[in-house]
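Saturday, quiet lab. Running sequence design on the structure tokens for the scaffold JK sent over.
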């Protein structure tokens, strides 16, 4: 075997880790990826506010004097988390076999990619607001339910993805693969888990890292609304007197409710809201026609303590018939058919104690924010070396290593840095089998 050098060992490790990471990074390619300027992120506390799609009203008539509107620029915060590391220290006698390091590098890359996939899946499962449970025996019928929900709400149709868990893939995979939607595609497609292309407008992938959705039956006394809400779209503002800037996260709203026991509910629960026997319906976001189907929300925050009188849900419910409180422009953002009234009930629809999820979304709904460090500075530290490269998806992979003469040890730290944001919960959701 050729003589090994520290640099050669480190380069081999880095290359193997990067190669494995890229091969296993199934979900990142189905999300939006951004790597903002590092200096700007430092000065903003590693949070950046992005705008989301605007809506515009249609004003009838030849004469529109006095009917002009402004523009509501809704925003959401994208946040960097903390680096994900593999940090190892070994003695000189462990440096003799390069294959040892190659095996560790592959495992490190695999674990890094799996962690990213797992965190994306968890974010969608907990924050995605679309939901259905199906007893369909056909894989196409099961996937098509998500298509119908998204289409009747007039959501984007260009980049949709559906991740199916292993057990449901066992049930539906033969049917989906038999449609030959991958005919002529490279064999590598199958290696990445894709089992169908453009099946009911979705590209379909099998995934082993999808989380369970924890649910349960509603308590005898479900959550009831205590104060009639009048939610509206809001942009950030600047105080005219103090100059203080206020950013507003458009994605959720806090309902004031009668006192309830918090242990009966979970973050991630999917709910509908009913005024008596009338279930609040979703509407088409463009034509504003009711779909005839319940609007589903996800619980994104439950206050600490055993009881509470507020609960936070997503998306923010904006009622089409709230004309007394909302302007023409604000009504263009409506997403539900009618107002939520006092004593309206919140009804959980994920009623199994635990169920393995299938997840679906439009690419624009999920965002991965990449972080960068000044790697050149670390390379100048005494005894420390740095290797870094950009993977084909745009994410940075870093390796920093050094040695200790006194202990005859070699240390390396292999890491990535990113944050995951569900920037539009209305474009992603959970599908369960019964």
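Result came back. Writing it out in full:
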């Amino acid at each position: 075997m050729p003589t090994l050098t520290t640099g050669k060992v480190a380069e081999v490790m880095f290359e193997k880790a990067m190669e494995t990471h890229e091969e296993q990074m199934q979900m990142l390619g189905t999300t939006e990826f951004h790597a903002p300027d590092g200096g700007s992120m430092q000065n903003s506390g590693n949070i950046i506010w992005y705008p989301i799609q605007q809506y515009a009203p249609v004003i009838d008539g030849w004469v529109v004097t006095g009917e002009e509107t402004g523009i509501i620029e809704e925003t959401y915060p994208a946040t960097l988390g903390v680096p994900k590391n593999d940090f190892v220290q070994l003695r000189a006698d462990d440096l003799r076999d390069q294959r040892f390091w190659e095996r560790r590098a592959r495992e490190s890359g695999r674990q890094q990619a799996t962690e990213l996939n797992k965190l994306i899946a968890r974010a969608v499962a907990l924050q995605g607001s679309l939901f259905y449970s199906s007893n369909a025996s056909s894989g196409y019928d099961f996937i098509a339910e998500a298509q119908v929900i998204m289409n009747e709400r007039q959501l984007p149709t260009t980049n949709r993805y559906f991740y199916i868990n292993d057990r449901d893939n066992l049930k539906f995979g033969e049917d989906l693969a038999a449609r030959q939607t991958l005919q002529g595609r490279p064999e590598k497609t199958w290696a990445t888990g894709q089992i169908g292309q453009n099946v009911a407008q979705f590209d379909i992938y099998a995934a082993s890292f999808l989380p369970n959705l924890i649910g349960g039956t509603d308590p005898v006394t479900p959550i009831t609304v205590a104060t009639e809400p009048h939610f509206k779209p809001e942009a950030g503002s600047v105080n005219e007197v103090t100059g203080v800037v206020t950013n507003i996260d458009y994605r959720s709203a806090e309902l004031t409710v009668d006192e309830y026991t918090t242990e009966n509910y979970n973050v991630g629960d999917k709910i509908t809201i009913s005024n008596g026997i009338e279930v609040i319906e979703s509407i088409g976001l463009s034509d504003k026609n009711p779909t005839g189907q319940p609007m589903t929300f996800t619980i994104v925050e439950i206050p600490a303590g055993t009881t509470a009188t507020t609960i936070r849900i997503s998306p923010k419910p904006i009622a089409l018939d709230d004309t007394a409180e909302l302007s023409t422009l604000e009504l263009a953002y409506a997403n539900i058919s009618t107002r939520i009234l006092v004593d309206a009930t919140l009804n959980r629809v994920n009623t199994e104690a635990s169920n393995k999820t299938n997840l679906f979304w439009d690419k624009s709904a999920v965002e991965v924010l990449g972080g960068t460090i000044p790697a050149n500075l670390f390379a100048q530290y005494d005894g420390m070396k740095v290797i870094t490269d950009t993977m084909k998806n745009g994410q940075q992979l870093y390796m920093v290593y050094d040695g200790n003469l006194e202990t005859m040890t070699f240390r390396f730290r292999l890491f990535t840095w990113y944050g995951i944001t569900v920037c539009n919960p209305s474009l992603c959701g959970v599908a369960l089998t019964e």
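Notes for JK: The chain is about 20% helix and 30% strand. The first strand starts at residue 32 and ends at 34. Ask whether to fix the surface positions before the next round.
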